[in-house]
Amino acid sequence: MIHRRGERHAEQPHTKHGQDRVNRQMDRSGTQPVGSAGSPGPEIEVGIPGKAVVVVNPGSLSGKTEAANIDAILRERGVEVVPLPKTDLKQQLAAIKACSMEADCLIAGGGDGTMNALAPLLMETGLPLGIVPMGTANDLARTLGIPTKVDQAVDIILQGRRRRIDLGEVNGRLFFNVAHVGLGVNVTRHVSSSTKKRWGFLSYMRALPGMIRSARPFTARVICDGRERTLRTLQIAVGNGRHYGGGMTIVEHACIDDGLLAFYCVRPARLWELIRLAPLLKSGRFGGTEHVVCDTGRSIELRTRRPMPVTADGELVSQTPAKFTVHRNAVEVFVPVDYADEKEDAP
Predict the structure, then answer these.
(1) Residues 222, 288 within the same domain
(2) Identity of the highest mean pLDDT range in 20-34, 50-64, 69-83
(3) Which of 14, 62, 137, 240 has the maximum number of C-beta atoms within 10 A of its C-beta?
(4) Is the pLDDT confidence value at 91 over 90?
(5) What would the pLDDT profile of 54-72 be if each residue is shown by its tens digit?
(6) Is residue 246 part of a domain?
(7) For residue 133, what is the domain's CATH number?
């Protein structure tokens, strides 16, 4: 049974740095934060950022070209770009931390792996995140309704509407989207980046039959907000966000800003029965099938007889036993002006 998700409430900036940044932007734009006293909702209207740090995944084939395009659009619109050393991402993260008080936001070009790498820095500095999707799956951008065209994504940042979203954590590692144990780990390992880029969601569906044939069921003890059950399963997924795998949905009512984690567990079944689940993986509508168990909660623990790998946002991050928690309203992101309306319309 899936529990309906709770009501949202206004949140103030998590750090003093974040509050100072809001005050500076209010001085420039003359606007009040939405979500301040007497105003509901977590959005904050602050106008166009005056100074931005731009980081683009250095491993991207088009990274240098797209970084130059982003810089050009920002400067044309009057936004000052804080220069970063042209080096690897680790050194760039250190440079961003050093100049975080100078900037009004961090604009990141890359995929879900890049956003995942930035998560600890975003929590520490309070920098709002502007997303320019340049990866293969771009599931965080999909959850937030951010288009993949560079100019359109930058336009959303320059519209200045921000919203706080949650971060998941598993065994000390932060993630935006979804974590997996079991079949999902194997699919992630066997689907190449080039295949994902070409086929998107279908690349996982193409790999699924072969992975199911070789998958071994395992027994997991799942504790969700104190509700304990023992499950025989092929796959367990725990989601902070809504989408994963290039457009699959964790559960129908999943949301990235409600303070809850969602999980589903796929029970062992015949091959043809599991293949028939494919459309449900796309929509997250598992209510009518006996082969999937779903739940939501603020804390989820997974225990298996032997350690099993755990992936999150497509990266191998830990192993079982695994404890999942959620950081409510941990990161501020730029979203389209109609983001709240689109969520209401989502299936």
Answers:
(1) yes
(2) 69-83
(3) 240
(4) no
(5) 999 866 656 677 888 899 9
(6) yes
(7) 3.40.50.10330
Q: How far apart are CA 91 and CA 99, in angstroms?
A: 13
Residue 5 belongs to a domain = no
**Residue 29: is its pLDDT beyond 70?**
no
The per-residue pLDDT for range 163-175, each reduced to its tens digit, is 999 999 999 999 9
Cα 89 to Cα 230: distance, rounded to the nearest angstrom: 41
Q: What are phi and psi of 234, to 5 degrees?
A: -100, -30
| Structural tokens at position 345 | 């319309």
b/e per residue, 243-269, with b = 16+ CB within 10 A? bbbbbbbbbbbbbbbbbbbbbbbbbbb
Q: Which residues are catalytic?
A: 315
Q: Which residues pair with 219 in a beta bridge?
A: 232
Instruction: Please indicate, yes or no, whether residues 224 and 106 belong to a single structural domain of this protein.
Output: no
Per 3-state DSSP, what percentage of the chain is helix, strand, and coil (rounded to 5)?
35, 30, 35
Shared domain check, 110 and 82:
yes
